[in-house]
Design a protein that fits this description.
The complex is a heterotrimer of chains A (389), B (301) and C (99). Chain A is built from twelve helices and 16 strands. Chain A has 389 residues and is an alpha/beta fold. By secondary structure, chain C is mainly beta.
Chain lengths: 389, 301, 99
Amino acid sequence: MKAVLTGNESAAWGARLSRPKIVAAYPITPQTTIVEKIADFIANGEMDATMIHVESEHSAMATCISAEATGVRTYTATSSQGLALMHEMLIWAAGARLPIVMSVVNRAFAPPWSIWSDHMDTVAERDTGWLQFYAENNQETLDSVILAYRIAEDRDVLLPAMVTEEAFILSHTVEPVEIPDQGAVDDYLPPLDLPHRLRPGEPVGYGSLMMPDQYMEIRYRMARAMRRARRVEEKAYEDFWDTFGRLYAPVEEYKMDGADVALVIMGSIASTAKDVVDSLRERGRKVGLLRIRTFRPFPAEEVRKALSSMDAVAVLDRSYTFGHLGALATEVRSALYGSSPPIKNYIVGLGGRDVRVRDLEWIVSDIEKVAKEGLDREITWVNLRGGEE
Amino acid sequence: MVKTSLPREEYLISGHFACPGCGAALSMRIALKALGKKAVLSIPACCWAVIPGPFPYRNLEVPLLYTAFEVTGASVSGLSEGFKAMGEDAIVVGWAGDGGTADIGLQSLSAAVERGHDFIYVMYDNEAYMNTGIQRSSATPEYAWTTTTPVGKREFWKKGWKKDMVGIMVAHRIPYAATATPAFPEDMYRKFKKAASIKGPKFIHILSPCPPGWRFPEEKTIEVARKAVLSKVFPLYEVENGRWRVTFKPARFIPVEEYLRMQGRFRYLPEDAVRYVQETVDREWERLLRKEELSKEGPIW
Amino acid sequence: MPYPWQELEEAPIARVPTSEIKRSSWRTMRPVIDYDRCISCMICWKFCPDVAIRIEKAPEGHKYDEIPVIDYDYCKGCGICANECPVKCITMEREEVGP
């Protein structure tokens, strides 16, 4: 069924089609309309789930963790400060190996208050043991919720997953979206069968103290699961293509054939950048685009394969890790270690600053210069009023 | 067969890691005798996160989900609704210390009780952060020594009366709230049985003496708890839908001094402080009796 | 005792009962019941935080058919039993040798 949906409506539809039994969430701009939509679905009997109206995001995740431990599929959604408040429980969800799925509407951190988009919130949760998928558009926002459950709940993975969409740019903007058929989703996504679920009468201690002589082994299992998620993800995309006819990959190569320089981007900026690449290609400029969809597990091999022969690489970060580069630039650099073309990091779009066509065109010109003349500086802030020091 | 006042089934397993004379271990033993096989526990950071021992050990014959410090209320909400969705018949029990309940966990507990999920929440109150080494909590009694309220030259003792958790719970119009202590195991057993028979949120405040934290010899755990009740420091009562009932009215009270003086944490207490505690518990006892009397006419929230 | 990672479950789930661990090394004092004076009231059993007192069938000819028996594998020697015994028939004796 074709419909015109906002990003948040798309996320809610993704949740509805995945049939979670428990939804626990707390309102935060710009996530609210996801939860409102789900409340409508439940109120109208279109979704067989219980909504638990928790008093904080921290409790939202804690509630999902305990509910999921009984073996039910759970869903939540948040943003920015809410995600930061959840931090402790994100680590808990991953450590308890509970495949919870959460939509995150990317929003900048306070202070100063900002309700607009950047990736600081989810990038800051990179190391919690969650799978992370960054959507480019509303269709992907919907599809990724279904995909996330499929990958996270696989017995080889059993890790939680977050699907991100950017504040307002996606969350409150309508696009035509194909809503998959419920029957097809049911075939694609079987009911959750959690091997370690709690059963009354079966005595276990779930998450007890672990001594130094044992802790590393349980963490190794987690690291192994994250590694194995790569293969599970590939299979999930293959089956998704077969069932729904839409193709996803951990990294999307756009006009990379014959490119001399490449832009590396996560999220919705990739849409604008594709237009820029198209028009520059028409003018004979050899530029391609690599969109990173899966930030965790990081597709280092695919990134290496796509970028190692470039003359220069421009990595756009809609976030910044204070004290070094943007997180994506750091990851790309480490993936390319040993075969390294010059890599320049462009900090863009913090706090919802528009990333315009002309900004992207400037970045392409700049990286072409780097390809010819070598790296002038490692990192630059794009469209910064007053310029850089 | 000899008649015992409690059932013989055991759900607490020997060999656990609690200190000798631990009131919290004994409380769990009594509680589970009442709740039985269907109990599923959620336990945050507290002594009881360590008592079952490190991996691969467990010391209960029922499932135990470990949770973070401040989330017991949220956890029992998730467990309760999760089991319901799975069609599983479980008695969901949150089992947290006084710090995890009256301090860091108060927000999520309040929310869970307001929403009204079906669970029993137990605050086993050893009146300080005992697992981390006797730091003061909001449930530490006035005048108690702790490692963060030491008796120095300028500053001494915990200031302010301890937080009234049952009062806070009753203000939520909780269907059932009660106090209990392992010195009165039959009373505790009956309260857990009753809690299990009532739908919705239930709260049980257990006074759980801690020999190393309260500074008394470990064989005195029951005696200390008994004296807390006999001295009016810790009255045994229950509040069912706003109806207050004192479940044990001592024929003869003992002076608070008898309770205070057997604990090293009150060793330095001057006479005027003892008098203040005596006056306060006397007044609180009268207030409790009045609530019992008045609530016969209608609920007092 | 620690497991190689291959033998661990994905989630950290503990399954071994603590009764596999003997606790007698914690004890400095040992409770001893004088069965001549014991009235089998089972108050000691009731108050034991370590579930280390079992109710067992009494020997033939004993005045009660069941008696409390201390399980020294698990008794930590806290002495609650001795303190609470209404007829004071439990004495705490010093452990001279470690187990």
